[in-house]
Design goal:
With 105 residues, this protein is an alpha/beta fold. Helix content is 30%, strand content 16%. A 4-stranded parallel beta sheet has the order 3-2-1-4, with helices on one face. Strand 1, helix 1 and strand 2 form a beta-alpha-beta unit. The chain is elongated, with a radius of gyration of 15 Å.
């Protein structure tokens, strides 16, 4: 028996990087995986369930969550702008804060 057999996992930002690696590993361990990304084209070759999700859209999150019975949640969405915090524009800082902090709420 695989370690996550019978479990359902939701992974945000599963289109690439760490989110993709986690979603793929969960599949290999037997989980039913709901892989989300704001850019679903990145998930075309993913073999689990694929959903478009903007983690900054509270109603979209609520709608998706209400349709699932989750055992595992990985909030992987995040951004780091190029340069130092002193070089960030107000818009870059706000977007980073919203995506890296507010979306987790």
């Amino acid at each position: 028996m695989k370690r996550l057999e019978g479990k359902t996992a939701l992974v945000t930002a599963a289109g690439q990087g760490i989110g993709r690696a986690i979603a793929q590993r969960f599949l290999e361990e037997g989980a039913q995986v709901v892989a989300t990304d704001v850019n679903v084209a990145l998930l075309e070759d993913f073999s689990g369930r694929i959903e478009h999700l903007d983690v900054l859209d509270k109603s979209a999150i609520s709608n998706l969550i209400s349709s699932l019975e989750l055992d595992l949640l990985v909030n992987c969405a995040g951004v780091v702008h190029s340069g130092t915090v002193l070089e960030a524009t107000d818009e870059q800082w706000q977007f980073a804060f919203d995506l890296n902090v507010r979306s987790m709420f």
